[in-house]
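Sequence only, no structure available. Ideas?
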Amino acid sequence: MKISEGKRKGMEAVSNQDGVIAAAAMDQRGSLQKAIAQGRGVDPKQVTTADMTEFKTAVARVLTPHASAILLDPEYSLPSLKAVAKGCGVLLAYEKSGYDKTGPGRLPDLLPEYSVRRLAEAGADCIKVLMYYSPFDPPAVNDIKHAFIERIGAECAAVDAPFFLEFIGYEEGKDEQGPEFAAKKPEIVTKSMEEFSKDRYGVDVLKVEVPVNMAYVEGTRGFKGTKVWTKAQAKAEFQKAASVARRPFIYLSAGVSNEVFTETLELVAESGVNWSGVLCGRATWKDGVPVYAKGGVKALEDWLADQGVKNIQAVNERVKAAKPWYSFYGVESAAALR
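Reply:
I predicted one. Tokens follow.
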């Protein structure tokens, strides 16, 4: 198995010396703006572009020395690139923020003023796209989404940039944090991983949700009292989802606390699946948002240097159980893919 030279270099840029992706995520836009506004007790419109860039730059400066890569957005984060530590790779988001709220089917959309070529020229080693997806949506909806990903895959291939696809499961009209959806989530994640592993999409890395909601896994610290799975059953769901992957995959933290995410990664390691790392955002820096909102950037930097670094180091410790991304291609080094 071989991959193109540009894609191989891009993958190496965002991986650590062990070939594992231990990346931080700071591409939140609308959700971050609302969180800062909530901390200040103001309307989100009063949170400025300068505020957003300041927050993102602080995160990049303090946390990237401890990460193999950072995921940023081109709308607010391009000035933050200068703060990224040497040797830390960069992923840039291509999707428009907030499109999931605009109608049935949660049809995806891209930033109209960008292309994969422009993102690469701006400093991206890899391209990330987020899409809401359910294998149980009507075929008319998923045909649009499948064609959408095919186009991006072709665009990434033309520019020779690795394509990271993040898909978030959902069901119209359902509480995505409730037990009913939780029971269906493993099948949603598994079928999505199987679909987007197909060659036709040109995806290089699947950025996937954990197939279980830890709030419903009995015996975990995150358990909230309603059992959907035992720990043994949860590990079986990890194994089932991983078994269909034909591309390297990494886990996203999906807004849970650092404690919950690190326990999740412990369960992943116990399950023995062949995962390739994480792209972890809010589990690292989320609790710094009210600190910034009330105390400004210096208070945020102090918090990040203490608790933020502890959070990312806790994740990094669990990521030691991950396997190199190139192991999915049956080789022992990235150089063997040349």
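Residues 5-337 form a domain with the TIM Barrel fold (CATH 3.20.20.70).
Hope that gets you unstuck.
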